[in-house]
Design a protein that fits this description.
The protein is α/β, with parallel strands linked by helices. It folds into 2 domains: about 30-135, Alpha-Beta Barrel (TIM Barrel); about 155-258, TIM Barrel, CATH 3.20.20. The chain has helices at about 20-30, 45-50, 75-85, 110-125, 140-150, 165-170, 190-195, 225-235, 240-255; strands spanning about 5-10, 30-35, 55-60, 90-100, 130-135, 155, 175-180, 200-205. Strands 1-2-3-4-5-6-7-8 form an 8-stranded parallel sheet. Helix 3 packs parallel to helix 4 (about 110-125) and helix 8 (about 225-235) crosses helix 9. The longest helix has 17 residues, at about 110-125. Bound molecules: zinc ion. This is TatD family hydrolase. Belongs to the metallo-dependent hydrolases superfamily. TatD-type hydrolase family. InterPro entries: DNase_TatD-rel_CS (IPR018228), Metal_Hydrolase (IPR032466), TatD-like (IPR001130), TatD/YcfH-like (IPR015991). Its EC number is 3.1.-.-. It comes from Pseudomonas kulmbachensis.
Length: about 260
């Protein structure tokens, strides 16, 4: 069962002590490819160095809205330079993690919007998919995406919206990233929504080290947990884990052009 972790922060220091072993264990459990996402300017080089050690790791570069106050205007320019320097490299796969976070009140919405749009423009210019963080901001993200109409779409990571929001994203060419959140029995609303999602909309992810699934509570999350996450989500959806693995992998391959 070949799985793709479409969202991990494997470059984070949380993995420094055992990254090599963890990668080996993940591969042994069937997790073949992983997308490592940049969140601020000072992790891009580290992230790129990491993916260069393994041909099945892929890089996305972006300025995450949660770190809004650390970003500087020149970082957007630098992002453009990174994308231009690596254009066409098989391990550059997307712009991300970018988006809008309306959950944290200290993040200026206007500032987030400007940053988000500047990076969507880069995704459009470099014909890359966009990997999005969307928290309490679906209406605004959907409205923004309708103006940009990205040719290659992208992924709404850790999707936890409604049926209607899912439909809007699908019309815009986006896939929905599912991971640990829906493995929790308490996530009643989300579990109801995912039962009805079309299978061709779904990609799997861990968001590791965050978003621990129900079977590994209060632990560092890891790509090696993806098979268990797949199993739990398949159960919620009433399909076999093999079917979910196969379809979600095909969906991610199609999106990234692998
Ligand atoms: Zn993330």
């Amino acid at each position: 069962m070949g799985l793709i972790d479409s969202h991990t922060h494997l470059d984070f220091p949380d993995f420094d002590a055992d990254r090599t072993q963890l990668l080996a264990r993940s591969r042994a459990s069937g997790v073949e490819q992983m997308v490592v996402l940049g969140v601020y300017q000072h992790n891009w080089q580290r992230l790129w160095d990491l993916v260069q050690t393994d041909t099945q790791l892929y890089a996305a570069f972006g300025l995450h809205p949660v770190y809004l106050n650390e970003h500087r205007p020149e970082h957007v320019l630098e992002l453009g330079q990174w994308l231009s320097r690596l254009a066409g490299h098989p391990q550059l796969c997307a712009v991300g993690e970018i988006g809008l976070d309306y959950f944290l009140p200290e993040l200026d919405r206007e500032g987030q919007q400007q940053l988000f749009e500047a990076q969507l423009q880069l995704a459009a210019d470099f014909q890359l998919p966009a990997l999005l963080h969307v928290r309490r901001s679906h209406a605004q993200v959907i409205a923004t995406l309708k103006r940009f109409r990205l040719q290659r779409g992208g992924i709404i990571h850790a999707f936890a919206g409604s049926r209607e929001e899912a439909r809007e994203y699908l019309k815009l060419g986006f896939k929905l990233g599912l991971g640990g959140a829906a493995t929790w029995p308490q996530a009643l609303r989300l579990r109801k929504v995912i039962v009805d999602l079309p299978l061709d909309a779904i990609v799997l992810e861990t968001d590791s080290p965050d978003m621990a699934p129900a079977m590994y509570p209060n632990q560092r999350n890891s790509p090696e947990h993806l098979p268990d996450i797949c199993q739990a989500l398949a159960e919620v959806m009433g399909i076999s884990p093999e079917r979910l693995a196969e379809t979600s992998t095909a969906n991610a391959r199609e999106l990234f052009g692998w």
